[in-house]
Amino acid sequence: MSETQMPTARTRVVREADRAVYDRESVYRILDEGFLCHVGFVVDGQPFVIPTSYGRKGDSLYIHGSAASRMLRQIRDGVSVCVTVTLLDGLVLARSIFNHSMNYRSVVILGKGTLVEDTAEKLRALRVLSEHILPGRWDEARQPNERELKATSVLRVPIEEFSAKVRTGPPIDDEEDYSFPTWAGVVPLEIKAGSPINDPRLDPAREVPAYAKNYSRRRAG
Ligand SMILES: Cc1cc2nc3c(=O)[nH]c(=O)nc-3n(C[C@H](O)[C@H](O)[C@H](O)COP(=O)(O)OP(=O)(O)OC[C@H]3O[C@@H](n4cnc5c(N)ncnc54)[C@H](O)[C@@H]3O)c2cc1C
């Protein structure tokens, strides 16, 4: 299948277009650092935007959940979705209230989901999700049994029509405001893991695995 040229009419960033990013590698870097998305869809004219986790492999985004979840039933039935991922990097404090901003990297994907029905593929997709969120965990946990697999729906959303938007750097004030007597700059924000807390029923001899002790969302590149 030939690849759609980005942006499409629907994914062209309008305001501050210089912050738009449309190349796949940059979009994948953002998607790989995050694991929470918001899935937007419309049912009977009412939009819903549901937060959930995801995993990415290649040009596929996988979302999973209870087979009974409305979000998954709707998407499975071919409803159009808008999936948004946001990484918040900082609060940007300008001299004027008007020019306050945030540093961020965000992705918007438009498309339609399809249900992953083949059991082997479903297991692979669940592994992708698990490894995306917590690399190293899948092989050390009990694998899903038939009942659990049946109770879980997995959806694939193709990463075909997308955009990213990135803001970095200091505040941008109006020239006459640079002499205004207040602090200006950036308060960096990031997801940081705390020290793992043992389950009260854990065998005290069991050590915390490295992937939990050193958990980080920072990705190379
Ligand atoms: C943490 C954060 C805080 C923000 N705060 C504000 C705010 O307070 N006020 C405000 O107006 N805007 C804010 N934005 C920017 C906002 O997401 C939109 O970019 C903005 O509303 C302008 O959209 P538009 O009219 O250009 O595009 P729209 O017409 O709304 O969208 C057209 C297309 O552009 C693409 N697009 C638009 N925005 C983004 C994005 N952020 N990431 C990826 N693709 C995008 C999509 O493909 C979309 O379909 C914030 C963004 C983030 C991530």
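qc> Helices lie at 24-33, 70-76, 119-133, 146-150, 210-213.
qc> done
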